[in-house]
Specification:
The chain has 174 residues and is of the alpha+beta class. The chain is 33% helix and 20% strand. It is built from five helices and nine strands, in the order αααβαββββββββα. Strands 1-9-2-6 form a four-stranded antiparallel beta sheet, with helices on one face. Strand 4 and strand 5 form a beta hairpin. The termini are far apart.
């Protein structure tokens, strides 16, 4: 598997001060690479968790998407240095459960770039995981209370694929 997503795409995005150019670069360059990556991540679930894959592999006929299994993703990246929002975007989140995600499914976190104090904390389990570049983390984020520690050096860049429960509520009229 050769996917061309790497730290240079994230750094290129951060070079844009013009918001239009910033979003245009995301749309034209990074989104296609994420869409190319998604079937590999979906296959990871299919091979290792076939029951979950079969339960959540749905077609959303009223939503146009090139994503095969995960219908939603988030891009997490740091902002320009010395920006007030830097500390927020760098990941210092409060402990939470992702209540909009499907309860028994996984979110998949793919990490790019190394950064200092890069911990993912699963508070209820008493686990602190050091997350490094190129790690792929599967997390039941709707079930497990979790948070990211604050990055003190470097940049946190990641892509998170997840299953938004509203799609399944509408499909199955839950």
């Amino acid at each position: 598997m050769i996917i061309k997503i790497n730290i240079s795409q994230f750094q290129h995005i951060l070079a844009y001060e013009n918001k239009y150019r910033f979003y245009l670069y995301l749309y034209e360059n990074l989104f296609p690479l994420i869409i190319e990556l998604e079937p590999y991540i979906a296959n990871l679930i299919k091979i290792n968790f076939s029951k979950i894959y079969n339960n959540y592999n749905i077609d959303l006929s009223n939503i146009k998407t090139k994503l095969s299994f995960f219908k939603t993703f988030a891009i997490n990246l740091s902002l320009q240095e010395n920006d007030y929002l830097e500390s927020i975007r760098q990941g210092a989140t409060n402990s939470h459960k992702d209540s909009n995600d499907c309860l028994h499914a996984f979110c998949i976190i793919i990490v790019f770039e190394d950064f200092k104090d890069r911990d993912l904390v699963l508070k209820e389990l008493g686990i602190v995981m050091e997350i490094k570049s190129e790690y792929i983390v599967l997390l039941r984020s709707a079930l497990l209370e979790h948070f990211n520690s604050h990055v003190v050096k470097g940049n946190r860049f990641s892509i998170v694929f997840y299953l938004k429960k509203i799609f399944y509520n509408i499909l199955y009229k839950l």
